[in-house]
Write a structure and sequence with these properties.
Two copies of one chain form a homodimer. In chain A, α1 packs antiparallel against α6. The first copy, chain A, has a three-stranded antiparallel sheet with strand order 1-3-2. Chain A is mainly alpha-helical. Helices cover 58% and strands 12% of the residues of chain A. At the A-B interface, α1, α2, α3 and α6 of A face α1, α2, α3 and α6 of B. Chain A binds a DNA duplex (30 and 30 nucleotides) through α5.
Chain lengths: 120, 120
DNA sequence: AAAATACTTGCATAGTTCCGCAAACATGCT
DNA sequence: AGCATGTTTGCGGAACTATGCAAGTATTTT
């Protein structure tokens, strides 16, 4: 059931795959979080102009925020004519968060199973 | 089974409680993530000096990084004599991540259940 | 008490981020 | 083609962040 042969370095590498800085970078700004919350509770994809009404930031700034969130995999964008509709990529985001939580728990499980680690 | 009476604003407020900027702020720096990975794979709490060996940052910077992660609820600190031992607060971090994932899914579930939302 | 050890904090600096504005770009309409 | 609409991008400035160094605090050792 457990895998006592994984070394600390291996586990750290496995965890590091889930600790993507650009995901947290995208989510570390409160205006971007407001946009995420807005899109999460919208019943359909929103245009940049629509999304921009939820935070007191100039449209150009909102455009930058949204594309940053898209690049981080948080949002999906679809171009329809001259509009761009953004929606939350719920599977990707919730999935990434759960995978990270699982990876953290897995580290603990292994750490508790084995006795000690020699210093780095 | 479902709760069709929750309004978008309410759901957004509920989600916003889990979208804590300071958590993501703490996790958005790659050196801090390296420290988190190091602590996650350690079999016991590490001192500031021990932790500082995993990233090429001056001890004083590591001290600041660790206390920032502690303030965000990612790490737990215990003072033992003149040493401070930091360990990952796995329950808190993994729990926060899963709660956020659940809150995101809950938004989607409600959004899909009801037909449309009037513009903000 | 003095010295050593572990950590924290003040300060200056270099780099980064966020922002609004204006211009550019892309698409649709007449 | 010309104009309107929606979005993106270049630019400069203000604010913020990470960092190393040096000085400071707290605790243990001698």
């Amino acid at each position: 059931m457990n895998e006592p042969h994984t070394r600390p370095d291996d586990r750290r590498t496995a965890l590091a795959e889930h600790l993507r800085p650009e995901l947290f970078r995208a989510l570390c700004d409160s205006n971007r979080l407001t946009l995420v919350a807005r899109l999460a509770t919208a019943s359909r994809p929103l245009t940049v102009t629509e999304a921009s009404t939820c935070c007191g930031v100039h449209l150009s700034g909102v455009s930058r925020h949204l594309s940053m969130l898209r690049d981080a995999g948080v949002l999906k964008a679809t171009k329809q004519g001259r509009e761009v509709r953004y929606e939350l990529d719920c599977d990707a985001l919730a999935g990434a968060l759960r995978e990270l939580a699982d990876a953290l728990d897995a580290c603990r499980a292994v750490c508790c199973a084995q006795t000690e680690e020699t210093g780095t």
